[in-house]
Amino acid sequence: MSNSTMYQFRIDEQEKAETFEILQEMGIKPAQAVRLFFRQIRKTHALPFPIEHTPNERTAKILLQSDAQKDYKRVNSVDDLFADLHK
């Protein structure tokens, strides 16, 4: 028998209730669903579903800008980058 470990995370109460209800209708316990999810990640080295996220208005606007409009900074090394990030 393999050793098991516990992992906790926070989730919105309504999201939890709705998801648990759907899982119950499917005949799957939440812990089983999480284990299935983890197994698929290990097997495929990817999330087992496409990520379909629409960027918010600010992000969409920035993505549509040309590189010249994005005010990129140039650094000479990774050390310089981290030094600049910690300013």
From TrEMBL:
Domain of life per record: Bacteria
GO BP terms: DNA-templated transcription; regulation of DNA-templated transcription; single-species biofilm formation
Annotated keywords: Toxin-antitoxin system
Keyword DNA-binding belongs to the record: no
Entry-linked Pfam families: RelB
Annotated InterPro entries: Arc_rbn_hlx_hlx, DinJ, RelB/DinJ
Single Gene Ontology MF annotation: toxic substance binding
Family: Belongs to the RelB/DinJ antitoxin family.
This protein's name: Type II toxin-antitoxin system RelB/DinJ family antitoxin
Origin species: Limnohabitans radicicola
Taxonomic path: Bacteria, Pseudomonadati, Pseudomonadota, Betaproteobacteria, Burkholderiales
